[in-house]
């Protein structure tokens, strides 16, 4: 096993487009799990652009990540909410909706919640 692993998200192992062409998820398989870079375009909303793929009432992914650019609002099923922007660490448990805030794409990196994200159910 190599002591160094250098990968680039511009050459991912897998890319999953969001419904309506509203962005994509690029995945790199590290051997220890998937790490993802998501690009959410302005107007993207989980309940419109990922829910049809997931088939669940709210997002069931458990996210641990970092916001590279843009802004995203996350609202938990219980009503708790937060807005994340560039430089923010984010930890979001399952059971939420989310959407892009503003006119800039939101780019995030996630090392726990993207392995099955935007993957068609069934």
Task: Report what the structure shows.
This protein is mostly beta strands and 122 residues long. It contains two helices and nine strands; from the N terminus they run βββααββββββ. It has helices spanning 46-49, 51-54, and strands at 14-17, 23-29, 34-40, 63-69, 71-76, 81-84, 89-92, 96-101, 106-110. The strands form two sheets. The protein has a six-stranded antiparallel sheet with strand order 1-2-3-9-4-7, with no helix packed on it. The chain has a three-stranded antiparallel sheet with strand order 6-5-8, with no helix packed on it. Strand 2 and strand 3 form a beta hairpin. The protein is globular and about 45 Å long. The protein starts with 13 loop residues before the first strand and ends in a 12-residue tail after the last strand.
Keyword list:
single chain, about 120 residues, mainly beta, 6-stranded antiparallel sheet, 3-stranded antiparallel sheet
Strand content: 35-45%
Approximate shape: globular
How would you write the strand order of the largest sheet? 1-2-3-9-4-7
- Count of DSSP E strands? 9
Portion of residues within helices:
under 10%
Unreliable stretches? none
Biggest β-sheet description: 6 strands, antiparallel
Structural class: mainly beta
Order of helices and strands: EEEHHEEEEEE
What is the CA-atom radius of gyration, in angstroms?
14 Å
Q: How large is the count of helical segments?
A: 2
Distance between the termini: 34 Å
Mean pLDDT over the residues: 95
């Amino acid at each position: 096993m190599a002591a160094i692993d250098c990968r680039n998200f511009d050459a991912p192992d897998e890319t999953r487009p969001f419904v309506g062409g509203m962005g994509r998820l690029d995945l790199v398989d590290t051997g220890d799990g998937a790490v993802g870079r998501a690009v959410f375009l302005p107007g993207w909303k989980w309940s419109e652009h990922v829910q049809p793929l997931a088939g669940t009432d709210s997002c069931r992914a458990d996210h641990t990540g970092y916001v590279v650019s843009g802004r995203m609002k996350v609202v938990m099923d219980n009503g708790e909410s937060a807005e994340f922007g560039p430089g923010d660490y984010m930890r979001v448990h399952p059971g939420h909706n989310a959407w892009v805030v503003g006119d800039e794409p939101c780019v995030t990196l996630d090392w726990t919640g993207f392995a099955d994200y935007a993957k068609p159910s069934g």
